[in-house]
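Researcher: Re-running this chain for the archive, since the previous output was lost when a drive failed. Same request as before.
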Amino acid sequence: MSARNTCQPRCQPRCQPRTQAFIGFSLMAFMLATRFHHFGDALHLPDASWALFFLAGFYLSPAWLLGLMLEAVAIDVAAVGWMGVSGYCLTPAYAGLQLAHLALWAGGRLSSRQTGANAAAVARMAGLALGATALAFVISNASFYWFGGRVADTSLAQFARTFVDYGPRFLSSTLIYLLLAALAHGLAVNLAGGRGAGLTGAR
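Model: Regenerated structure tokens:
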């Protein structure tokens, strides 16, 4: 199979347009299905947006990033404007959330450049996933706390407390989604019999 038709991690040609479209629209559909519920409940899955931005960086060309960002904003606006969701988080610091999305996308991009299926490569990708998720939380949390205008008396101690209150849930839900995606990726590659590893990261 020619390099043009695959997504090898080293030479990094892009996936075929149909593959890019399938993955891209699947990520967008999953965002639409989950973004309304941050932590989930008995009837709804937790918000998968952070994992989806990471996966977009891993699999898709940069052209998809803007589309996903616009979709995220559109969903948030629709949720607040027409679905009765609280607008508490829509503040001037909302732009910081887009920087968090960018950090996740960049983490996925860097992860796509890791080659091999050995323990060291897997550990590097896992470290990038954890690091990108943690950085995204720091960016979004700090932006909201310090610049959102919702906290009257700010302090470093109270800010640190928000990491304990919210950090584990954001990190765990994102990393669980990424783990499931990694398992699906491995299954797809095995089913393909190693013929070009067609779902390997695309730059």
